[in-house]
Amino acid sequence: MSYFRYLFVLLTFFAVACNNAPSEAPATAPVASGDPAIDDVSALIAQRGDDHSLYAKRAELYYEKEGYDEAIQDLQRALSIDSTNVVYHHMLADVYMDYFRSRLALRTMERAAALYPERIPTLLKLSEFQYILKQYEASFSTLDKVLKLEPRNPDAFFMMGMNLKETGDTTRAINSFQTAVEIEPAMVDGWISLGQLHASIGSPLAERYFNNAIDEAPPGPGAIIPLHAKADYLRDQGELEAAKALYKQINRLDRQYEEGYFNTGVIYLKQDSIEKAYEHFNIAVEVYPLYIKGYYYRGLTAELLGNTGQAKADYQHALNLAPDYTEAQQGLARLAKNTQ
């Protein structure tokens, strides 16, 4: 159930109001979308407008293409036909969450949990959303319900650890993550969390836990997350060559992983290998053209190399993507001052 484990550092959410029940959307199919798969389902809906599964299928297709409004409308229609379908509630909650409508996502999961108060996947998802919205006590309460139903549920202990970590109870968080991996040794994120918490308190056990995460990860690209976690740990411990070797290993597994190039560049910068740092920041922004930090650091290394034109262009590019980026603003001001 990796969905419960990867979401927590990736999203920023905004609160909005929500009705207590999904509103009914029009039954008519939309005009041609230009996507053959969507249009095929729309044609079926035109023939069988009371088939909730067709609306759900089209919603899934829209969701995959980030057509959030259309996905929401179709899921609302599906739920107006079959209001007790828990899969539709879960999907609607996911769409709301990815559409930065976290309060609506939470209300949707609260409805699903009211319909199915003993369904463990629903309760776990609700606890996750409560965690995301910093409703830690509510999340603890939901997890208690899970553990009463299934006392050795590893995902419940993992989520318990996430809540305890955020509330500052490091010791109990470690105990919860430890219980989670004892129940499910293949829980990569549990091992990573243990490594990070032990690192935060200066424990020498940290590296062992990162190694366990790597050992339990699937081969190939599936190992990138634990490798990155260990590389960050080694970098923070000052073991720059070992960290750099891991970042490079990551990019051998995935040549489109911009963070690997970026972090290698940062280490070269710390080692005063400015040209090599520039090369890696350059690759990072080529791989991911919206990489704000990549442009700033490429600009910084260009400035250090005396290429003020490139530096100015990169600082400006970073500001075009993030107008409040203080370091990029300072970079432009520094260049302007030095050219006076």
TrEMBL record:
Keywords (alphabetical) are: Repeat, Signal, TPR repeat
Instruction: Give a Pfam family name.
Output: TPR_16
Q: Please name the InterPro entries in this protein's record.
A: TPR-like_helical_dom_sf, TPR_rpt, Ycf3
Note the PROSITE patterns from the entry.
PROKAR_LIPOPROTEIN, TPR
Q: Where are the TPR repeats?
A: 52-85, 154-187, 258-291
Check the UniProt entry and state the signal peptide residues, or none: 1-17
Protein name from the UniProt record: Uncharacterized protein
